[in-house]
Structure formats: C-alpha cells, structure tokens
Amino acid sequence: MRIVLVGPPGAGKGTQATRLAEKLRIPHISTGDLFRANISRQTELGKLAKSYMDAGNLVPDEVTIAMAKDRMEQPDAEGGFLLDGFPRNVSQAEALDELLQTEGIKLDAVLDLEAPEDEVVKRIAGRRVCREDSAHVFHVTYSPPQQEGVCDACGGELYQRDDDSEETVRTRLEVYHTQTEPIIGYYRAQGLVVTISAMGPVDEVTERALEALKSGK
Ligand code: AP5
Ligand code: ZN
Predict the structure, then answer these.
(1) Which among 29, 136, 144, 167 is least buried, having the fewest CB atoms inside 10 angstroms?
(2) What is the pTM of this model?
(3) Which Pfam families match (predicted)?
(4) Three-state secondary structure of the chain
(5) Which domain does 144 fall in, by range?
C-alpha cells in the first residue's frame, strides 16, 4: 500500500506510523525524522533545515522534495510506503503526484488524523524522544518511561525536541492550518481521504486506522 498520513503536529502521526508500517509491512518514511537525522550528523542539509524547524516553519520545497524522492526510490519502498509529514503543502502534493505518475503508481489512501488543539498541545508538551531511535517516543504522563529520561526500548537518552517549545508549537499549528490542511481538500478531490479520530488509547487509534484503511472510509 501507498499511504500518506496527515494531521496536526502532535496528533500521533509518528506513533501510529511506526505501528501501521509494521502491520502493513511497508517502510515508514518521515521527512521530520530524515531532517533530524541530518541535523544530528551535522550535514549541510541538516544545518539548512534546522533554522526553519526551530522556528516552526516549513523547510523549502526544493530540498524537501529532493530528499523525499531520494528516500522513496530506495529498494525497500518499491512495494509501498507510509509517508509521515510529506507532502505538507499543495506544491509538495503536486510534486508527489508527478513523481508517482512517472513511476506509473498511485496512492491508495490519505489517512487524516483528527485531534483537537488543546489535546495536541498537551501531547507535544509532554513528548520525550530517544536520541538513538526516533521511533522510540514517550510521553511524561500518557506513556512514561520506567526510568525518567531513559528509553525503555534501548536505554538511550530521552530528550525534548527543540521545536516543542510553546512558542514554536503555536507557529507549527498555524503553519499546519494555512499550508498543510489545504492538501486534504486536494486529496479529497481525488477520493483518497479517510478521516479518523486520533483520540483515545494508542492501540485503539491503530485499530481504527486499520479498519478505515480496509473499508476506505
Ligand atoms: P515533523 O517531525 O513531521 O513534526 P510534526 O508534523 O509537527 O509532528 P510531530 O512529530 O510533532 O507529531 P506527531 O503527530 O508525529 O506526534 P507523535 O506521534 O510524536 O516535522 C517537524 C518539522 O520538520 C516541521 O515543523 C518542518 O520544519 C520540518 N518538516 C518536516 N516535514 C516537512 C515537509 N514535508 N516540508 C517542509 N518541512 C518539513 O505524538 C506526540 C506525543 O503524543 C508523544 O509524546 C506520544 O507519546 C503521544 N501520543 C501519541 N498518541 C497518543 C494517544 N493516542 N494518546 C496519548 N498520547 C499519545
Ligand atoms: Zn530508544
């Protein structure tokens, strides 16, 4: 399957993408994680991306699209993929369409995760991420690690993302509404959007997502 995951910052895209990718046996491709990996390796791309990310703004399309294209062309993505955080505006969606068209392939669904603003703000404020593996995500109240600051899965250090400060979160939410939400209309016109609530326990949301993908609504 080829799926795009969309939803406001903190809705649980990364959390659900990890689970869905495992169940559906497709790679989880997160442009946010790819940028963060570049930042920690101190590449030129990482240096460029960091200034935009820290301010809560989108990284320019040109570099984002090239990075996403390169990742989607890796052999493990041949049979399908789950895109998390890409596309993030209509021009990225158009670029993705073009790319898929050249390959003669199509998206199967756009999974839209809905969560109210006060909930996503709480989720982001308490989020802690593992330095060793970005798939290891915790929350100080909702899914606390056994030992404060230490990843249960691998013992790595847990940290708070630089862009999770209150001020940056406000910008990210605004950017989501003005730039990313329009892609839902874009994909609705193609009949691809399935919307589910991202509220409730993580496992229930995963079940809801799998059901929705199966039934297409
Ligand atoms: P990105 O990394 O994509 O961040 P985001 O979209 O803002 O989303 P988040 O990672 O904040 O949240 P999430 O929905 O994945 O939530 P999570 O599962 O962690 O992008 C970061 C930046 O990179 C952008 O601002 C931009 O600068 C740049 N960028 C990335 N892609 C780009 C693109 N295509 N173009 C241009 N720029 C781009 O969950 C959040 C918390 O809630 C966790 O603590 C989790 O444990 C908890 N939680 C999850 N589910 C539940 C639940 N059901 N109940 C209770 N708690 C839950
Ligand atoms: Zn870890």
Answers:
(1) 167
(2) 0.96
(3) ADK, ADK_lid
(4) CEEEEECCCCCCHHHHHHHHHHHHCCCEEEHHHHHHHHHHCCCHHHHHHHHHHHHCCCCCHHHHHHHHHHHHCCHHHCCCEEEECCCCCHHHHHHHHHHHHHHCCCCCEEEEEECCHHHHHHHHHCEEEECCCCCCEEECCCECCCCCCECCCCCCEEECCHHHCHHHHHHHHHHHHHHHCHHHHHHHCCCCEEEEECCCCHHHHHHHHHHHHHHCC
(5) 2-215
Q: Is 31 annotated as a binding residue?
A: yes
Residue 101 Cα, ligand 1 centroid: separation in angstroms? 28
* Mean of pLDDT over the chain: 96
Q: How many domains does the chain have?
A: 1
Give the closest ligand to the alpha carbon of residue 7: 1
**pLDDT higher than threshold 90 for residue 217:** no
* Pocket test residue of 5, 59, 118 for ligand 1, highest count of atoms within 8 A of CB: 59
Question: ipTM of the predicted structure?
Answer: 0.97
pLDDT in tens, 169-183: 999 999 999 999 999
Q: For position 94, which CATH number holds? A: 3.40.50.300
Q: Which ligand is nearest to the CA of 149?
A: 2
Question: Is 35 annotated for ligand binding?
Answer: no
